[in-house]
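note to self — DONT lose this again. spent like an hour looking for the file last time. sequence + predicted structure for the chain T wanted, 129 res
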Amino acid sequence: MNTEIFDCKKCGECCKGYGGTFVTESDIKVISDYIRTDPRRFVADYCQMSGSRPVLAQGENGYCVFWEKLCTIHPVKPRMCRAWPFIRSVLTDIRNWHIMAASCPGIRTDISDETVEACVRKELKLPLS
């Protein structure tokens, strides 16, 4: 995804740790179909639990188990991955944009906080404030 404030470099930095990628029931179904496995088997083999919610497991290298120099499930990647870096926490505290930019070379920080907020709201399909 490329926008005026973000240009994905496909570096995989967003695929590293950072608390894990939550997967919804819909994500589980679509990814399971894509990799030709049963949804329960998918959760057992490719997820870890965070509380009661499944997150994509991390490999020993710290990356998501589906990262191999590129995302191997890119066509069906989880909602959380598709949204990056346009996430609600940026609207809660604009400093989150700058924190994420420290590890993501595609995030622009040479623009105003107002522009960032407006673009994030637009991508999330939220009304402008």
